[in-house]
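note to self: dont lose this again. the chain is below, predicted strucutre after it. 338 aa total, dont forget to put it in the shared folder this time
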Amino acid sequence: MFAQTTIQHPVAIAQVMVNFAARHGVDVETCLLGTGIAEAQLHDPDALIAREQEMRLIENLILALPQLPALGFELGLQYTVATFGVFGFVMRISRNLREAVESALRYLPLSTAYCVLEAFADQDEFGVSADPSAIPQHLRQFLLERDTATAMNLLRELGLSGVRVQRLEYQGRAPDHAARIHSLCGIAPQYGSARNAIVIHRQDAETVLPMYDAHLVRLLEHQCRAQLERRQVAGVVGQVRQLLLGPLGLTASIEDVAHALAMAPRSLRRRLEEDGSSFRNVVEAERKQLAARLLEGTEMKIDEVALQLGYGDTASFTRAFRRWFDQTPGDYRRRGSQ
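---
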């Protein structure tokens, strides 16, 4: 069953993305377009944003920087222990890397992670696996690479550069930017693996860290639990959006979505109205955003884009696209390639 709540993220996580985009010539307005995040919030250390707002920012970043290979992986390397506040400090003062990872997994919603992360170990090795299957398809590769790069960066930072990652494993075929990932992290990813994972020597994972403080760990873990409770908020619009972009797809009816959320369609309509939206508006917004991304970033034919967005025919898609952008999909693509 789909979760009835979402977790708000600290705006510092979004600030890293905005700063990264700025270094590549993308302005703040472009990053925040459609997110509902005000620029002033980026400078408020106590500000929190919803997961769907962060996801929209990620989409904007992908649209703005299509020329950067391994964009997600490079972004992931920008996150440090300090980015995550108390959550990061708990990891820093843990007994060893293994316990740091275990603490991180307990409070994972306080991090950037969208993948489902799990620790594993055998006699010789310790690692973290990442399952991106719950992430919307069009963001899956980006967020898998961002999450694994972030995890790799944190392991190295916590180990004071004394930890060497043994393997970086990915399922599936090697993307065109595999060499770029190698150059960014110094490790050639192994593709066609049974899992997505970062692997280190078990001895490195169990070496005592220099800042270990058992009393402070207990104190800060209490603060992490309190933060989780504070950030847990109802977000029916975000839940609907994630279902449409994920397991159900944009062809889903309100009845399909209501069933997935374990509520009656009438109740879902009412909840959306209370949040100032409607099922039609949510679907329309996602189709518009995804249409622009597919036309700009892929070579899919117009009729294939229409089908991907849940339209029964190309004419219906073209009419909707004209309403959104005041031009045809073909004109939009041609102008974008000039």
